[in-house]
Fold this sequence. Notes:
By secondary structure, the protein is of the alpha+beta class. Helix content is about 25%, strand content about 25%.
Amino acid sequence: MGEVRADWRRVPEQTRKWVATCIGARARVVRVAFIGVSSTAQHSVDVADGRGVVHPLVLRRFVRLGRLATDPWYRPDREAAALRLLERSPVPAPRLVAADLEARTCESDKAALVEEGKLLVRFYYPGAKTYGVRG
């Protein structure tokens, strides 16, 4: 899908804090690994809650701003809505943990989704392997 800019490979501190708060007030990010970029920049993020239990998550940031402005199918709100609908179905899909659809909490210009499990979609289900990031 073209270029992968260096700033897409890292997760800004403000976004890391937001991901941690999705798990709880005393949660903290303990590991971040860049997975890749397709339609979104994807990172595997492990967050330890206040009791020390680690929650494997996937952060997906909508980094292709030109596409957000012009492509009617590249819509974070629709993707979040689809994941919410799938929670109530037998279809195996990641559970949406949080969404910053208007980029108010994370970065100033990028919508973001946090999903439970591992990588997401390109899909990672518990017990599966993805891109060599987890096993």
